[in-house]
């Protein structure tokens, strides 16, 4: 029989595509029950009006993640307290895709394009986080522009960046340039400062959004907000 | 007006509401969920002493509003924006007609804004013209994610949206406030995407586009278009309250906005009744970029704060600013027009 820990571990691989963080860290998993080969997961979101497309993606990804755990035969993932809960839950139960879940309200079949946009943003933000750390260590923007991946000291930020870069299908070999745009093009030395300056707002936007979502979830469900300031 | 440390500030609240979300007015579950969502913002980001009970938050009185904004909240003039949401609320959430009651009673206190919905087509165009005429409107609030029957939202790129913007231009409705919300169709797109504002702003250079909430949660996309379009402004509602609970994050937002747009295109706002203007004014005037971030972002001066708190909005709406309020340096020297604005 699959363990709760194994299921949670699988769920920790599911990220909010917009916030680029695991749904388990975000406390979106409200309840988890394992009975024999069947798993029941309940998800919750910060507001009833969180975007239905991202909500759908997380529910679908969570279901797939749970089913990937050895020994799990049936997985039910339910979205609680959302304006599109009934559509999404019914869509899941009937194994309908996104356009089948919201008939007439989508264009094309899938959410791939939306997912790609947010992978791009997360790629940019992760690269900025890594470069920011390197600049703080004393590297200059010109050095970053010439830096190869093998020359970047090991760190968690580097690992996260490389994971995303790899998922993105970009070159992660030792000799590849550190600073590239989301299409894989090298950024010339004189453009690196501007490139990182813009990347910074993307990172700030994602982090701020995540903070807002944490605060709203904490308020909504009466759980502690880890980022609550003590004014 | 607000005064602190010898500096005087004319305060224009760029975004206030007078809504009715009481259970009697909720048309369905979405009406309840919508106000619950607002109440979440209110409780998550307000100081404790400013928290309202849910019942008051659903429906507050005219006296509450006048007291909070003008008696204790330092606001000189408030721009009152409608949000119809007629699919969620029996009489609408707050319509232009409802807001007009306040405007008629306190003509010097409010700037009344209207709205249009391009899905209303040709008949809507005529009605919009009547609305503008009867209330002498200078601005509209557009809520592109608003539901209407089967539709879960619209885009400024829509042909009919452009017809309405042409009408705005023709009628002198020059300030277009745009709010992005979470359920725009087609649902496989990013509902918060502000790219349609870019296209509209290029096509209508004589109109001012005030992107509410500075595009949050898509600050980067907003900055990107604002850099390119001189007639795009940032409304600070929703960004402001971070000043209390996450001041370092607020410093980053304001620092980035000042870097990409400068202080002439930012409009301070409370989003009343979600947040109370009193603490937002006090904290903003006291605010400074934390020392360790000043290398990246510089500092905020009283002149910058004066523009953001009121002069920029006063300029957009041709409001009279008391002579005791210092004008921006360039204007005071008679060298230049008020910076940046196309009007």
Quick take:
Chain A contains 8 helices and 5 strands; from the N terminus they run H-E-E-E-E-H-E-H-H-H-H-H-H. Chain A has 231 residues and is mostly helical.
Task: Describe the 3D structure.
The complex is a heterodimer of chains A (231) and B (343). With 231 residues, chain A is mainly α. Chain A folds into two domains: 4-110, Fe-S cluster assembly (FSCA) (GMP Synthetase, Chain A, domain 3, 2-Layer Sandwich); 113-217, no CATH class. Chain A is 48% helix and 10% strand. Chain A is built from eight helices and five strands. Chain A is elongated, with a radius of gyration of 20 Å. Chain B is α/β, with parallel strands linked by helices and 343 residues long. Chain B has one domain (10-316): TIM Barrel (Alpha-Beta Barrel). Chain B has helices at residues 29-45, 54-58, 62-71, 96-105, 121-135, 159-171, 195-203, 219-228, 242-245, 247-260, 277-286, 294-297, 302-316, 329-332; strands at residues 2-4, 7-9, 12-16, 77-80, 110-112, 139-143, 175-179, 208-211, 232-235, 266-267. In chain B, the strands form three sheets. Chain B has a five-stranded parallel beta sheet. In chain B, β8, α8 and β9 form a beta-alpha-beta unit. The model of chain B has no long low-confidence stretch (mean pLDDT 94). The A-B interface holds A 18, 46-53, 83, 98-99, 102, 104-108, 110-111, 113-114, 117-118, 121, 197-198, 200-202, 204-205, 207-209, 211-212, 215-216, 218-220, 225, 227-229, 231 and B 29-30, 33-34, 36-37, 40-41, 43-45, 47, 150, 152, 181-183, 185-192, 216-220, 223-224, 242, 244-247, 249, 252-253, 256, 259-260.
Main traits of this protein?
heterodimer, A: 231 residues, mainly alpha, GMP Synthetase, Chain A, domain 3, 2 domains, 3-stranded mixed beta sheet, two-stranded antiparallel sheet, B: 343 residues, alpha/beta, TIM Barrel, 5-stranded parallel beta sheet, 3-stranded parallel beta sheet, 14 helices, 41% helix
């Amino acid at each position: 029989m699959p363990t709760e820990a194994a299921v949670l571990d699988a769920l920790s691989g599911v990220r909010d595509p917009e916030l680029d963080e695991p749904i388990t860290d975000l406390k979106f998993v409200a309840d988890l029950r394992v009975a024999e080969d069947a798993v029941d997961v309940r998800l919750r979101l910060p507001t009833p009006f969180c975007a239905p497309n991202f909500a759908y993606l997380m529910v679908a990804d969570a279901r797939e993640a749970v089913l990937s755990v050895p020994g799990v035969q049936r997985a039910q993932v339910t979205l609680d307290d959302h304006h599109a809960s009934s559509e999404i839950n019914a869509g899941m139960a009937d194994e309908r895709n996104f356009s089948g879940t919201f008939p007439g309200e989508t264009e094309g079949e899938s959410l791939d394009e939306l997912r790609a946009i947010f992978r791009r943003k997360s790629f940019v933000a992760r690269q900025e986080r890594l470069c920011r750390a390197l600049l703080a260590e004393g590297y200059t923007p010109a050095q970053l522009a010439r830096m190869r991946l093998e020359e970047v000291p090991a760190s968690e930020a580097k690992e996260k960046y490389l994971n995303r870069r790899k998922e993105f299908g970009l070159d992660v070999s030792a000799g590849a340039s550190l600073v590239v745009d989301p299409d894989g093009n090298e950024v010339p030395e004189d453009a690196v400062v501007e490139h990182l300056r813009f990347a910074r707002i993307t990172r700030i936007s994602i982090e701020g959004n995540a903070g807002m979502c944490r605060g709203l979830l904490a308020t909504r469900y009466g759980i502690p907000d880890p980022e609550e300031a003590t004014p | 007006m607000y005064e602190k440390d010898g500096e005087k500030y004319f305060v224009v609240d760029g975004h206030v509401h007078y809504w009715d979300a009481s259970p009697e007015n909720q048309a369905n579950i979405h009406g309840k969920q919508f106000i619950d969502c607002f109440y979440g913002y209110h409780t998550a980001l307000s100081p404790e002493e400013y928290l309202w009970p849910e019942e008051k938050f659903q429906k507050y009185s005219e006296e509450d509003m006048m007291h909070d904004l003008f008696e204790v909240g330092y606001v000189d003039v408030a721009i009152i924006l409608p949000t119809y949401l007629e699919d969620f609320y029996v009489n609408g959430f707050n319509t232009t007609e409802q807001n007009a009651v306040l405007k008629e009673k306190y003509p010097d206190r409010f700037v009344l804004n209207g709205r249009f919905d391009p899905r209303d087509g040709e008949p809507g165009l005529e009605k919009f013209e009547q609305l503008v005429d009867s209330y002498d409107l200078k601005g509209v609030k557009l809520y592109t994610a608003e539901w209407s029957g089967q539709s879960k939202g619209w885009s400024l790129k829509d042909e009919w949206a452009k017809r309405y913007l042409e009408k705005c231009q023709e009628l002198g409705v020059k300030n277009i406030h745009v709010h992005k919300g979470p359920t725009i169709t087609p649902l496989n797109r990013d509902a918060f995407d502000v790219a349609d504002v870019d296209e509209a702003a290029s096509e209508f250079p004589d109109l001012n586009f005030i992107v509410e909430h500075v595009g949050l949660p898509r600050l980067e996309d907003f900055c990107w278009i604002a850099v390119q379009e001189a007639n795009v402004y940032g409304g600070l509602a929703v960004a402001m309250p971070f000043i209390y609970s996450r001041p370092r994050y607020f410093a980053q937002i304001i620092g980035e906005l000042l870097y990409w747009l400068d202080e002439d295109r930012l409009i301070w706002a409370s989003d009343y009744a979600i947040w109370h203007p009193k603490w937002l004014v006090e904290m903003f005037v006291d605010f400074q970029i934390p020392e360790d971030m000043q290398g990246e972002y510089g500092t905020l001066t009283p002149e910058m704060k004066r523009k953001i708190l009121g002069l920029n909005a006063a300029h957009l709406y041709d409001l009279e600013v008391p002579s005791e309020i210092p004008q921006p340096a360039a204007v005071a020297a008679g060298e230049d027009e008020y910076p940046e604005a196309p009007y």
